[in-house]
Amino acid sequence: MFTSRAEYRLLLRQDNADHRLMEYGFLFGLVPEEAYRRVKQKLSTIETEIQRLESTRVGSYASYQSKLQEVGIGGRLSSDVSMAQILRRPGIGYECLLDVFEPGSIAESDITTEIDNRIKYDGYIQRQVSQISKFKKVERQIIPVDFNYDGVVGFSAEVLEKLKSVRPHSIGQASRISGMTPAAISLLMISLERDRRLNKPEAKEKMFHVEQSGSV
């Protein structure tokens, strides 16, 4: 599977595949306990180091300024900047941070790579986590069996053909159709909400009065 086709590919990264899947492999008897324990220890090491980088303030110590210049990091540090904030700067990696501040003794490249990714892209990762949480609340939304897909403006010919062929019973099922895009799902949800409002008794009554007044 190409992660570039995945909707939440920031969470489906290569460097965290063992963390995401190893537990399932262990539960199903596909992974030995020793391998599972190593992954758990690796995750614990990553979490502990990230917490330390987030909470450790480096201050405006003069001793750091020369080291920063040596590794090409310019600018003075404010007194409340954390190591994690420095790591988020462009062109700075965990190893570079290690050279300047000696934050730890982690040498494994797979661990340092994930620390880099988790800290640098934390804002984007949290945004996707929030999007997943919101989608879980609506994925069980039922699609009426007689829903008119032809009435949705904006569907591509491919998306329209697949929806009419499969006739998914819920938003969740529709999202799992091959080739379905997040934009198409958004259009579908908007159209379902529009139909729901129009089909409310009070909405129908209002439309009836409008039609009656227009015919006079």
- The CATH superfamily of the largest domain bears the name tRNA uridine 5-carboxymethylaminomethyl modification enzyme MnmG/GidA
> Helix content range of the residues, please?
55-70%
- Termini separation comes to 62 Å
Task: List SSEs in N-to-C order.
Answer: HHHHHHHHHHH
The CATH architecture designation of the largest domain is Orthogonal Bundle
- Assembly context of the chains: single chain
* Mean pLDDT, all residues: 81
Number of helices: 11
Shape: elongated
Q: How many strands in all?
A: 0
CATH topology name of the largest domain, in short, is Arc Repressor Mutant, subunit A
**Assigned CATH class of the largest domain:** Mainly Alpha
Question: How many discrete domains?
Answer: 2
Radius of gyration: 26 Å
Unreliable stretches covering 5 or more consecutive residues: 202-216
User: Which structural category do the helix and sheet elements fall into?
Assistant: mainly alpha
Q: Mind summarizing the main beta sheet?
A: none
β-sheet strand percentage: under 5%
